[in-house]
Amino acid sequence: GNIDLEIQPGLCNIYEKSPFVNVSQIIKPDGLQEPISRPAEAPRASETPKPKKRKKLSTRWTTKPSCISDEAGQEYCVFTNANFANGRGISFFTTPTIAENVKDLPAFQEMGIHDNINDFSNPPWEVRNIPGRGNGLFATRKLERGDLILADTPLGVYSSDAFFPDYELGYKYLRKTYEQLPEESKKILLRTAAHNPGDMIMERINTNAFAGEFEGMNHFFLYPETALMNHDCRPNAMYYHNISTLVHSAHASRTINIGEEITITYLNLLQSNNERQETLKMIWGFDCDCKLCSASELSKARSDLNIEKINELHTTLSDWSSASEATPKLALNLLSLYEKEHLHAAVGTGHMFAALAYNAVGDTKSAVKHAKLALDAGMVSSGSVVDDGKDMTTLIESPKGHWSYMRRGSR
Ligand SMILES: C[S@@+](CC[C@H](N)C(=O)[O-])C[C@H]1O[C@@H](n2cnc3c(N)ncnc32)[C@H](O)[C@@H]1O
């Protein structure tokens, strides 16, 4: 299944949105990574980025693009830059317009931007093969919350529209995205799992790729090292995807002991046990036997109830209308539900809700406290770390000047 990425300025967020019909897919979104919705008119700190000095790199495609078009005449081409990310290479299968825009991204423009990325010389994990789940990553060093697990760039970025008009032809072009990569990268790509027989590249996209909107169209991103992580419904790692650098990174969301498997979630965790298990079976072809999936019926029912409450609290706390029933107390309830449900990765989001809820009733002291806690947890709390982080920083600097101040009056 595809992991669904919602792309935002500078970043993209991974969670379930529009499912990709047709493609069975990749890794799924994480319901915990949704940015907190703010009132539409709220000024966003992220709207005034500082201009960066950029060193121009050569961004020529290293292979002449080859193209197909659909019935409407829309062209999709294979674009490869074998020098991308210090020689790792990258292929796109997308429209010429998008390929042109991509060249302007910091990923292609900023010298040295990938210098510490794709470095697997001394990782805090090793790959182990476990019967019934294939390869997985296991910690070889103790990791603390926030520690980097890995950061990689994609070997392929594929528009979901590119290969559907005619599968046979589409697969031929998918094959080119692979063939045109450097030899070493081809090997890395082939090491990823394909859980169904079929087209060699398509099936790897289905099993491993993240899906999301990119330059206004749905795309799949194949991150080959990220792809080594197995799923758990209460994972110990969180990931985020930076759409301007094309770097995907995973961090520990709690302490991970030596020998423990490092896991992420493939789907929105804020669903019931049955929903999650059905999706995992249907899209990734496995019966989930993680701790939560194997718990007693009673524990699962309790957990489902907590998840329902969490979803309700998200809705209430995101309501900035005059009828809003949001209070700081509800935000604290939310935080304790995350704890109870072992949704470690969500703690930052919970503090963010609390900071806003306190500030909205004029308790600036508690607001600043929670904003600081949100920032502390921030690295792993949210797909929109950049925006939310900036928002929290603004709140800490001047709670009374923040858009949320007294928005809900005093209660
Ligand atoms: C992104 S890959 C993960 C790495 C994969 N195990 C490998 O060998 O490269 C996704 C595939 O791994 C397997 N998988 C992931 N999580 C699993 C789990 N919790 N239990 C069993 N199989 C799992 C499934 O076959 C799934 O389609």
From TrEMBL:
Q: What SUPFAM superfamilies is this protein classified in?
A: SET domain
Q: Which PROSITE patterns would you find in this protein's record?
A: SET
> What residues does the SET domain cover?
123-267
**Which InterPro entries does the annotation name?**
SET_dom (IPR001214), SET_dom_sf (IPR046341), SET_domain_protein (IPR053185), TPR-like_helical_dom_sf (IPR011990)
User: Could you tell me the keywords of this UniProt record?
Assistant: Signal
A Pfam short name: SET
Q: Where is this region: Disordered?
A: 32-60
Output this protein's name.
SET
From which source organism is this entry?
Answer: Glarea lozoyensis (strain ATCC 20868 / MF5171)
